[in-house]
């Protein structure tokens, strides 16, 4: 049974930390992007209001966060605890007395925020490998195939365009880059596009024998160790850490009984964040999650989330 966590933190202290971090980065107007922003009183809910001197518009500290227009924001911290504990939406709804449909949108706004937290640069020994998920259009009518019953299975054996490729790269400091890049095996162009500018200097790339990785290493003049056949380890150069990460990710995703491909990257972002926390549900971890979520811009409405389409770059 979850005891109410909000009094332990007081949302004021969370927003105080968020506002301090934003101020250190250079607090900017959400409308015009200028940094001529001043305090402009409080709302009836005791939220800080701001005013931009350039465009003369006002906004609150919850603007462009998952809490914007949230009617039961006092329950939001409790929901983060449920999220870390892996509770279903219906169980969470019973626990904190908020309808599960509302929690669905809360969850996806949180996922949208966390998906913006991704490794900018990988250094040292970098392991890279792709993993695959069967394409899912859960909740929609498939446009290019017949519907599967309860998830079903692929019609073709092995890798095909029915499988969605997720590229994951991770260094030994546990900095992790993840990206849903499309159907089937990744091409050299997609690897260069998504991973090329994230490789630091003096790195060692550990991968399997996919040709695209060899070309990536050659183009960036970096050393590469390749896993071939049964030879999995060469001293400290291997891809066992990334394979273990894939296994943990897939086990964790099983609890959702199938995820629509359009939401997949958000769930990977959530797993990656919780994996870094070691799924610790202490007060400190929940507050850290709350602050990190509120630091990222989320302007999606409920309709934006519901009508989201899969986009591959």
UniProtKB/TrEMBL annotation:
<dbReference type="InterPro" id="IPR024445">
    <property type="entry name" value="Tnp_ISXO2-like"/>
</dbReference>
<dbReference type="Pfam" id="PF12762">
    <property type="entry name" value="DDE_Tnp_IS1595"/>
</dbReference>
<protein>
    <submittedName>
        <fullName>Transposase</fullName>
    </submittedName>
</protein>
<feature type="domain" description="ISXO2-like transposase">
    <location>
        <begin position="121"/>
        <end position="280"/>
    </location>
</feature>
<dbReference type="InterPro" id="IPR051354">
    <property type="entry name" value="Transposase_27_IS1"/>
</dbReference>
């Amino acid at each position: 049974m979850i005891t109410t966590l909000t009094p332990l933190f007081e949302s004021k202290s969370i927003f105080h930390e968020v506002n301090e971090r934003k101020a250190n980065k250079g607090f900017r107007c959400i409308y015009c992007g200028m940094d001529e922003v001043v305090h402009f009183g409080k709302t009836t809910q005791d939220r800080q209001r701001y005013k931009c001197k350039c465009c003369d518009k006002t906004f609150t500290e919850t603007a462009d966060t998952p809490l914007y227009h949230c009617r039961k924001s006092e329950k939001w911290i409790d929901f983060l605890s449920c999220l870390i504990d892996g509770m279903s939406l219906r169980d969470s709804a019973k626990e904190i007395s908020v309808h599960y449909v509302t929690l669905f949108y809360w969850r996806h706004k949180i996922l949208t925020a966390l998906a913006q937290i991704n490794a900018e640069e990988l250094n040292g020994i970098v392991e890279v490998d792709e993993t695959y998920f069967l394409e899912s259009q859960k909740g929609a009518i498939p446009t290019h195939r017949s519907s599967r019953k309860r998830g079903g299975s692929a019609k073709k054996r092995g890798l095909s365009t029915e499988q969605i490729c997720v590229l994951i790269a991770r260094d030994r400091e546990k900095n992790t880059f993840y990206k849903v890049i499309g159907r089937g095996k990744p091409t050299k162009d997609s690897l260069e596009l998504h991973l090329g500018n994230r490789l630091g200097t003096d790195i060692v790339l550990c991968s399997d024998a996919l040709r695209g990785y060899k070309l990536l290493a050659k183009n960036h003049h970096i050393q590469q160790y390749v896993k071939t056949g049964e030879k999995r380890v060469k001293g400290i150069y291997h891809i066992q850490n990334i394979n273990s990460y894939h296994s943990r990710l897939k086990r964790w995703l099983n609890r959702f009984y199938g995820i629509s491909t359009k939401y997949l990257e958000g769930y990977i972002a959530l797993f990656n964040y919780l994996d870094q926390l070691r799924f610790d549900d202490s007060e400190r971890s929940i507050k850290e999650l709350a602050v990190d979520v509120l630091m990222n811009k989320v302007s999606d409405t409920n309709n934006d989330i519901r009508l989201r389409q899969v986009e591959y770059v």
